[in-house]
Amino acid sequence: MFGENEYLIVVHNMGKACSYCTLWADGFSGVSYYIEKKAAFVLVSPDTPEVQKEFAESRGWKFKMYSGAGSSFISDMGYYTEADGYWPGCSVFQKKSDDSIRRVAKDYFGPGDFYSAPWHFFDLIPETKETKEQ
C-alpha cells in the first residue's frame, strides 16, 4: 500500500450507502494527485471489492481502494464499534527504514470539517425554509 512512500494516508470511508462519505471521496478524487506527491493515498470501506469497483467507476474515482469486508482492520483502527457502527475519518501511517509501521496521526470526519470544500460554501448560503428542506 505504501509503494515507494514513507507515509500512507488511509481514508476510512463508510461505503456506498453514506452520502457524506461519497461527498468526501468525490473531493479526494480531485486532490489525490497532489496528495500522492507526498504520501500514498488509499480509501478503505466495508463494501466488497465488487461494490467498490462499480461505485468508484460510476463516480470517476481514480485513487486506490481496499475492502475491509471480512477483516477487523476498520474496527482495529477505531472506525467501527458494535455500539456506534462505522465512523468516517483517516489515519496516517509511517513506514520506517526497518519496515516497521506505526500510525502517526488520525482524525474523524464530520459535517463542516476541513476535509470537504463544499461545506464552507454551504455555510455561505443564507438558511431559508427551502434550504432546510433540501
> What is the number of beta strands?
7
CATH superfamily: Glutaredoxin
Number of helices: 5
Helical percent range? 25-40%
- Looking at the structure, the CATH topology is Glutaredoxin
Compute the number of structural domains.
Answer: 1
Identify the overall geometry: globular
Q: What would the average pLDDT be, to the nearest integer?
A: 93
For the biggest β-sheet, the strand order reads: 3-2-1-6-7
Roughly what fraction of the amino acids lie in strands?
Answer: 25-35%
Low-confidence stretches: none
Secondary-structure element sequence?
Answer: EHEHEHEEEEHH
Task: Please state the structural category.
Answer: alpha/beta
Summarize the biggest pleated sheet.
Answer: 5 strands, mixed
Radius of gyration: 16 Å
CATH class descriptor name: Alpha Beta
Quaternary structure annotation: single chain
CATH architecture designation: 3-Layer(aba) Sandwich
Distance between the termini: 39 Å
Protein architecture, described:
This protein is α/β, with parallel strands linked by helices. It is built from five helices and seven strands. Strand 4 and strand 5 form a beta hairpin. The longest helix has 17 residues.
Keywords:
5 helices, Glutaredoxin, 33% helix, alpha/beta, two-stranded antiparallel sheet, five-stranded mixed β-sheet, 134 residues
Quick description:
This protein is an alpha/beta fold.
Q: Can you lay out the helices and strands and say which pair or pack?
A:
Elements: E1 7-12, H1 19-35, E2 40-45, H2 49-59, E3 64-67, H3 73-76, E4 80-81, E5 85-86, E6 89-95, E7 101-108, H4 118-124, H5 129-133
Parallel strand pairs: 1-2, 2-3
Antiparallel strand pairs: 1-6, 4-5, 6-7
